[in-house]
Structure prediction request, 200 residues.
Amino acid sequence: MTRDNLLFAIIGILLGFICGFMLASSMSQKMVASAPTGGVNQTLPADHPPIAGNQPGAANGGGMQAEVTASLEKAKSEPKNFDAQIKAAELYYQIQRYDQSIEYLLKANQLKPNDYQTIVMLGVANLDAGHYDVAEKWYRAAIKIKDDDVMVLSGLSYAMLQKGDVKAAEDAIAKLEKVDPNSQDLPQFREKLATLKSGK
Prediction:
């Protein structure tokens, strides 16, 4: 074997490796891009809700974005539309923008001041935003309408504990215990209450 033949053989092998690598890499990328996401569902329980990637139209996230934008625009352009205000509030709440959610809930509350769900949602949104005084106000308004709502009593108890108001927390926890003695929140509420009492 001459030196020229050896050089051509080495160059041929190197070119083969490079071309093979490039071909394998491009095929791998095509396979990943076109692979259905159904393989993920095989590891999920049978009653698991569908994953966004499996839904028609979910491949382009723009569909959902367009729907959100349309809902928010509708709420802004139709300030007297109760349902539009609620929808906008729910969308903001889902992305944890609580202050914007509260803004739309307040508009909805002005349109229907006695709507129980709106009042409860105002309590929840203010609680999650850390506005415990305002959350208390809305939870107490909800209790005047319906005094046996476990979620409302639980929210009020939590707000009072976060404020550090021992007396109000005791009262709220007692009401919660009366309505639902098996509430999963009671043990942690009692523990937090005991901590507050011992700190005084």
About this structure: The radius of gyration is 29 Å. Residues 133-200 form a domain with the Serine Threonine Protein Phosphatase 5, Tetratricopeptide repeat fold (CATH 1.25.40). Residues 35-41, 53-60 have pLDDT under 50 and may be disordered. The chain has ten helices and no strands.
